[in-house]
Amino acid sequence: MQVCYYLQAVLMLKHLTKPSVTKNLMVKDWLEKKVSNSSDGQKATYISTSQNIIVLHDEDEHLFEIYFKFIRPTLLKKNSKMVNHFFVTLKGQPITNSGKDLERLHEKFQQPLVTAKEAKAVLTRWALEHLSEEDRELANTYINHSNQQEGITILNLINGMLIVTTLLGDGRGESSRYPVSKKRKRTAERIHQGEDGEDDEMEEERIPAGEQLDQKDECFKKLLEKYPIQLNEHVPSLTMCKSISQTTAQHCQDKWRRAQYKSRIEDVIEHFRHPPTKDQLAAYIDRQNWTSNIPRLQNVELFFRPHKIRGKEDNNNYKQHG
């Protein structure tokens, strides 16, 4: 059963799928899996379930195929040959609690328990600070999409999966076999080493590391002098950033965008004295008339901390005027 537990952990902790998706993965879903490619030509397998689409790169797909062909059949009994669930127990019956199976795997190897919800929260926090808006959007699409959601493409799901699994996986393992951008490889390595990884979003330059950091910091300071970070300003264009530095333009734009995004979240948080409802959050954000770089409700809720001092409005007043 350890293989079954491990594969469930792959889905919940690496792909951040809900336990219910893992529990309800069906044999029919697996047999109808399809293959497609990422933007840079990497092959991936995608499985349409009743709730969402699971995307696996070659290595994960190979492990699932070994389980399905060689391990699962040994678990089926005469009275369970018609079981349609992909994951089954030692008695050949459908698993009933993926979260409990994940707990058993941690206990077996004497590891502290990490839930899918906790893994998702860690990724969301880190991505907010360190990923570009484009990569953050792709990752968010993959971990939060549903089958009923319109406008979702397989290409975006594959690209999102590569970002998520590289960040949550071993940066020296999977990301080296299934290369994503150099930026993401360096990010994964920093995560594996326990570092914050902030400067890994910078483009590679053939100059010493210390000078590289100094140059990027200096260029960003120049950008701030010309274009201070303000809540209601648009993100400076890449052309404007290139007028300061051709080589660090993208880094400066991304850093400016992240700083403004964080400032907008802080503004929303500081607006309330007591924890607001989603409707209250949405109403306040909508009133700001921001057209881009708009804080997501889940990001605001994740970072929300009730203030001990009085905010701009009390929730009761907000209900009256919002």
Quick structural overview:
With 322 residues, this protein is mainly alpha-helical. The protein contains 16 helices and three strands.
Given helix and strand content, the structural type is: mainly alpha
Q: Percent of residues in helical segments? A: 55-70%
Number of helices: 16
**Element-by-element helix/strand order:** HHHEEEHHHHHHHHHHHHH
Biggest sheet, spatial arrangement of strands: 1-2-3
Main sheet specs: 3 strands, antiparallel
What spatial form do the alpha-carbon principal axes imply? Answer: elongated
The number of E-state strands comes to: 3
Mean pLDDT across all amino acids? 77
* Poorly predicted runs of 5 or more residues: 170-212, 305-322
Q: How much strand?
A: under 5%
Distance separating the two termini: 54 Å
Tally of separate domains: 2
> What Rg, in angstroms, do the CA atoms define?
23 Å
Task: Describe the fold and architecture.
The protein is 56% helix and 5% strand. Strands 1-2-3 form a three-stranded antiparallel sheet. The chain has helices spanning 2-14, 19-23, 27-31, 58-75, 98-108, 116-130, 133-144, 154-168, 174-177, 182-192, 209-226, 238-242, 249-271, 278-287, 297-303, 315-321, and strands at residues 34-37, 43-48, 53-57. It is mainly alpha-helical and 322 residues long. Mean pLDDT is 77; it is low at 170-212 and 305-322.
